Amino acid sequence: MFTGGVLAELLLSAAGCTMPPASPHADPPPPAHPGAAGDAPWWKHAVFYEIYIRSFYDTNGDGIGDLNGITAKLDYLAELGIDAIWITPFYPSPQVDFGYDVSDYENVDPEFGTLADFDRLIAEAHRRHIRVITDLVINHTSDQHPWFRASRSSRDNPQRDWYVWHDPAPGGGPPNNWASAFGSSAWTYDATTRQYYYHFFYPQQPDLNWRNPQVERAMFDVMRFWLRRGVDGFRVDAIDALFEDPELRPNPYEARLRPGSATEHVQHFKYNKYRPENFEEFRRLRSVVAEFGPERLLIGETYPRRIGELRKYYGEHDDAFQLPFNFYLLRQPRLDATAFRNKVQQTEWVVRGRPTAYALSNHDDRRAYDRLGDGLHDDRIAKLLTLMLLTLRGVPFFYYGEEIGMTTTTPERLADVRDPIGRRYWPAQRGRDGERTPMQWTAARNAGFTTAQRPWLPIPPSAATHNVATMSQDPRSILRFFEDAVRLRRSSAALLDGDYRPLGEDPHVFAYQRSVPTQTLLIALNMSRWPSAVRLDPIKWDGGAELELKISNVRLPGQRVSAAWISLAPYEAAVFEGVRGS
Ligand code: GLC
Ligand code: CA
Description:
Blueprint lengths: L2 H13 L32 E4 L15 H6 L1 H7 L3 E4 L27 H13 L3 E6 L9 H8 L11 E2 L20 E4 L4 E4 L14 H16 L4 E4 L16 E5 L7 E3 L8 H15 L6 E4 L22 E4 L10 H15 L5 E3 L8 H4 L6 H14 L3 E5 L20 H5 L43 H5 L5 H13 L2 H5 L1 E5 L5 E8 L2 E8 L5 E3 L11 E7 L7 E3 L3 E3 L4 E6 L4
Parallel strand pairs: 1-2, 1-13, 2-3, 3-7, 7-10, 10-11, 11-12, 12-13
Antiparallel strand pairs: 4-6, 5-6, 8-9, 14-15, 15-16, 16-21, 17-20, 18-19, 18-21
Helix pairs in contact: 1-4, 10-13
The structure holds alpha-D-glucopyranose (GLC) and calcium ion.
The site of calcium ion has 6 residues, from loops.
């Protein structure tokens, strides 16, 4: 049953596309996707897709992507097999950190659309069984947010304590040595009230004081605002930075300098990150989401110091994040079978059957296409990576453009850099623009992203070949492989619910078994430029003596091979199914 969505659709067709649905609040959560099996929560089987809204699709010709652009591309996403989208911040913002500096939590920046556009996006997504996750930026606001304007206006303003204010150190200067993640001191002096305020990120992003119960109440109401509008969950931003040490103990330094700086040492964020209070707060965030039923999801942007600490983010009683991010694959700098096998194994030990959110690319790091590509077999390697993400025991998060092999396109001139961090530490650091370039829809002007003269970031040269229109016509493209691999995952009980077992210790081939009682699969990823082979140990492999090829980035499926010797082409990625009774 999908009453809300159908109603919204009727209203829309009657009134053109400008009408919001009559009551988005009544919109029931969408039914489980046909591919989902059993009683597992929807997100356990879902394929997620991160949309950097500025760069996805522009419908009003200003060179910047918008909410209507996402709505316009929902059919594309549905066809791709995406179950849920995570949209980066679209709230009113001065855009210093491109939306991660929010000046109004309960509205849409005119650059991106209106609340009515958002309601329509939710209704249209749900109608296609696509869930919608929004970004929740709770550690800090914009310095233009009315809360901060009030807070900085005087020391006795009722909202003074909503942010983290301190006197200068005795003798002057910042209260302590804490550095901002984006460089320099985390403290900025405010002449009006002669105190410093704290900001873990840019000075235009003052940290909220989470020790103040009014702050918590206000943010919980923000969450309810969006949950009532029908969002299926939140990706919660920068959660490790929520609380700070109340004693302001100084952070230890590392010996090395920050890349691009001759004076700033890298700092170990011992006292302004990972505070024990954070973990108590995570449970409370979850209880707000749970007010709207067990289906609503909390994803954490979690950067544990050691992989072992990932476990803590689920909560002692699994009452915090259902899905903490696992950035260990994203941080892997080279294609290396041993490294991937170890990282996955460590994850398995830590999460003990809980779902983990795997990603290889996002809006803060270089794209996997060129980070892990060799420059010669990049498309083949991109398919290998896609297959890995879709076959590991975890929840895959793809970043827009990953399905067409978009490359990191870093600015070559300082004048072109948009991300402030890239301007500050140029040329050692060039910011995050490279992984945020416009989506490549067609081979035409501006890659079909915008009708504007100039998109907000330049179109990479690879748009000529790597775009949706061209690649959807090519049965051997990354895009078509992506669709096939998602389809395989959806129809395979072993991939959706099976256990995970690594096979062998080959330095070139990362191989593993996924199995349920009714199906055993072998996934073999040759991460080297040499032909390789897998010989299955009959003690560890219980899928039978004969295997059938289900998918490969090199050859056609259907072929049968012997478990005794499975040869793989350079960078071949393949899934085989054990033939029962063989
Ligand atoms: C998160 C976001 C990043 C942003 C930062 C500050 O790390 O992913 O893009 O700059 O938080 O909000
Ligand atoms: Ca904080």
